[in-house]
Design brief:
By secondary structure, the chain is of the alpha/beta class. It contains 30 helices and 23 strands. The protein is globular and about 80 Å long. Bound molecules: adenosine-5'-triphosphate. It binds a DNA duplex through residues 61-63, 89-92, 116, 138, 190-191, 193-194, 254-255, 257-258, 357-360, 380, 414, 417, 419-424, 461-462, 543-546, 548, 562-565, 583, 586-589, 602, 623, 625-627.
DNA sequence: TCGTCTCCTATTTTT
DNA sequence: TAGGAGACGA
């Protein structure tokens, strides 16, 4: 037996690693070594059972997790290697098989992948074309519905037969139009990647045999967050050998909004009655205090009690729960605490992470890092690839790779401005639609200005511009053969005149040009480090790989990350910011008990990322989405764990103006408790700044009361009775 | 046709 | 608050 493989495993884990025949379900809580099981299991298959690594498929939730698994395996095994292991996300695996065999279901080999932005574009156009009121049916929500159906493998044909209400009917109609557009553009969206892969395996016995024969062993990590399409794909791939090992934790299911379906865990046991189930119960990550908080929290969800976790790691430090006056001070407190820990040489920057519910929260924290000169990295956030200048250049690349992509053509046809405005563009599109051709096909068939002018009814000027554009495209496409993506980007910068165009922008031009240069640099880097040389490889890669995937663990800086993205990671020191009602749980999830439970799981995921120290922070006042600062209510998740021993941060870390009312929760509750009374609904009150108003609602919150007041001039506000200093001036009838 | 200005809205999480 | 959509003038 190989020591490397077994020495780092407990009995339950060893059982999971050596159970290689038949379906296996590993259900276990956070930090119990689920991912480790996958890693060691693959190593075991390769180096002990001498399975060729090309016959193993491992699916992970992020590309980062996949890389980590591959690295670990190659470090662990000696003598043999796992270089041919297929390990990646479902999406990247689907791209792989569709590029290989997509032609069997009529896919263009050069299909492009549409991102969110492209998708919305198509939807918006469909809505216009079908004359559907965009106000009543916002493209975002229509897209979400379509995506939901696709994740459940429901095609528009099926949907239009079964739609029960008006909304569904509209969705079905847009879905059909949308899908046709994608087809004629040779484009696939994220859901199509899964759906078409399933279709490929279902429709072609030959291909399906090929893949199910190839993959003797299947492994899926984070199984609780897979959707129906992914589950179906798993079944198709695994139907020959049925050596399928899935690993997950129902309490960490946080992607149902992306159509993940937790019932897959039940389906698995039903579809494979001979499934062996293994629970892992030792947690190797966190201290007992952290685990206690986690299990207290999750106990409030009426669900999913797997076996309780225990740990050898000792009690550890008490949790720290604290409050800043504003989100700014919340951030300062966090940063000062990190500084303190680092100064004491207890931790390094990169051992600390700050997590939050929404990306918008990162801004204040980032500012605090900057002003205190703390090295940091933000995962995700305002995405590089969604900047206008980047999208423009990428659209050029997409068109070069697949000229039938009308959506990308639309984006670049007049960028930089070349005299083809909306009117001319619309004429061109109409003409193309009528003739059942793509824009590019029209432009290549009729590439002389007078032809275009006559057939489409363009002005002379527009027709001339269009001829120029048509020639430009042709030139780009021919010249791009055999050169690398970064060279093509350079062509766009110079030959297309994108640089000159950006330089006209006096305020941001330089920054934007720098971004484009960075894009080129990144392309070059991919070329050198990952041998990504072809255009499709490059485009696939930037479509599928997100920010978290390139998270560099060796860079010594503090990590700023959303709770969602933190899944699967671990840090010695974790701060969760914004422990407030409306933020965590998020306001949009508060009135649905099912969604509320997911919010609680999200908090659970965050808490269980921590190894040694856990800080839960909130702001007393937060700059609100509506207007101005609003007093916030502490998150109910804090009450869930309130009977634990918690501490607050040392006063020394805050540099608040002492004259300010500092509602560090304790003192304001204790001091005011006697003088506090609820205010009756309908009472007329006077507030120093907001003026006169009427109490709409009064609810108890801890030792205090929260009132909703409608002020005559300032509108609706939520206030804490203890602090608002409301003067009662009368009663309404 | 293009660029700027204003107004209006909606406001999470992302492969 | 920010970002998009629509209006309007050059
Ligand atoms: N048998 C073991 N001995 C020592 N350390 C272990 C053992 N098993 C796992 N670990 C360590 O525990 C930590 C958590 O492991 P891992 O990430 O595999 O857990 P997980 O169950 O996938 O967690 P999560 O579900 O929270 O992502 C890792 O640092 C891992 O190295």
């Amino acid at each position: 037996m190989n020591d490397q493989i077994f020495s780092g495993l407990n009995c339950e884990q060893q059982d999971a690693v050596t159970t290689t025949d038949g379906p296996l379900l590993v259900l276990a809580g956070p930090g119990s070594g689920k991912t480790r099981v996958i890693t060691h299991r693959i190593s075991y298959l390769v180096s002990e059972l001498l399975i060729d690594s090309q016959n193993i498929l491992a699916v992970t939730f992020t590309n980062r997790a996949a890389n980590e698994i591959k690295d670990r395996i190659n470090n662990m095994i000696t003598g043999r290697n796992a270089f041919n292991l297929r390990c990646g996300t479902f999406h990247s695996f689907c791209v792989y098989i569709l590029r290989q065999h997509g032609k069997f279901i009529g896919l263009n080999q050069n299909f492009v992948i549409y991102d969110d932005n492209d998708q919305l574009q198509v939807i918006t156009e469909s809505l216009k074309e079908l004359q559907i009121d965009i106000k009543r049916f916002p493209s975002r929500s229509v897209l979400a519905s379509i995506s939901k159906h696709k994740s459940n493998l429901i095609s528009y044909e099926i949907l239009s037969g079964t739609s029960k209400n008006f909304y569904d009917e509209i969705v079905a109609r847009v879905y059909e139009n949308y899908q046709n557009t994608l087809n004629s553009n040779s484009a696939l969206d994220f859901d199509d990647l899964l759906m078409k892969a399933v279709q490929l395996l279902q429709n072609s016995k030959e291909i399906s045999d090929f893949y199910s024969n190839k993959y003797e062993h299947l492994m899926i990590d984070e199984f609780q967050d897979t959707n129906i399409a992914q589950y179906t794909l798993m079944k198709l791939l695994g139907n020959k050998y049925q050596n399928i090992c899935v690993v997950g934790d129902p309490n960490q299911s946080i992607y149902s909004w992306r159509n993940a379906d937790i019932r897959n865990i039940l389906s698995f046991q039903k579809d494979y009655p001979n499934t062996k189930i293994i629970h892992l119960s030792q947690n190797y990550r966190s201290t007992q205090n952290i685990l206690d908080a986690a299990s207290k929290l999750i106990a409030s969800n009426n669900a999913n009690v797997i076996n309780k976790l225990w740990t050898d790691n000792g009690t550890g430090e008490a949790l720290i729960v604290d409050e800043g006056y504003s989100e700014k001070e919340e951030a300062e407190k966090i940063i000062h605490e990190i500084e303190r820990l680092v100064k004491l040489k207890k931790y390094k920057w990169d051992q600390c992470a700050i997590m939050y519910r929404v990306n918008a929260q990162s801004r204040v924290i980032e500012e605090a890092c900057l002003s205190n000169r703390i090295p940091y990295k933000i995962v995700g956030g305002i995405k590089f690839y969604s900047r206008k200048e980047i999208r423009d250049v990428i659209s050029y690349l997409k068109v070069i790779a697949n000229p039938d992509d009308d959506i990308s053509i639309a984006r670049i046809i007049n960028v930089p401005p070349r005299g083809i405005g909306t009117t001319s563009y619309n004429k061109l599109v109409d003409f193309a639609k009528k003739n059942n051709k793509t824009i590019y096909q029209i432009l290549t068939t009729f590439n002389k200005a007078d032809e275009l002018q006559q057939l489409i009814g363009l002005t002379r000027r527009a027709a001339a511009s269009m001829e120029v554009f048509s020639n430009l495209l042709e030139k780009l496409i021919t010249e791009s053969v055999g050169i690398t993506p970064s060279e093509i980007i350079q062509k766009i910068i110079t030959d297309v005149g994108y640089q000159a165009y950006l330089q006209q922008d006096e305020t941001n031009g330089l920054d934007r040009l720098e971004n484009v240069m960075e894009l080129k640099g990144l392309a070059l880097q991919l070329h050198e480090t990952e041998e990504i040389t072809s255009m499709t490889d490059y485009l696939d890669r930037i479509a599928l790989v997100s920010d978290i995937d390139s998270l560099d663990p060796n860079e010594n800086s503090v990590t700023l990350i959303t709770l969602h993205q933190s899944k699967g990671l671990e840090f010695p020191v974790v701060f969760i910011a914004g422990m407030e009602e409306g933020l965590l749980p998020h306001i949009r999830s508060m009135d649905d008990p099912v969604q509320l439970e997911e919010e609680r799981r999200l908090c659970y995921v965050g808490i269980t990322r921590a190894e040694k120290l856990l800080y839960l922070l909130r702001a007393y006042k937060r700059y609100g989405f509506g207007q101005g600062s609003q007093i916030s209510i502490p998150s109910r998740f804090l009450s869930d764990i309130s009977d634990l021993n918690v501490q607050s941060l040392e006063k020394t870390t805050s540099n608040i103006n002492k004259n300010m009312i500092i509602p560090s929760s304790n003192n304001n509750q204790q001091e005011k408790v006697h003088s506090l009374d609820p205010i009756e609904i309908g009472t007329k009150v006077l507030h120093k700044t907001f003026g006169e108003g009427i109490v709409l609602l009064c609810t108890e919150s801890g030792n205090d009361y929260v009132v909703d007041v409608h002020f005559t001039s300032a509108g609706k506000k939520k206030l804490l009775v203890s602090l608002a200093n409301l003067q009662i001036i009368g009663q309404t009838k």
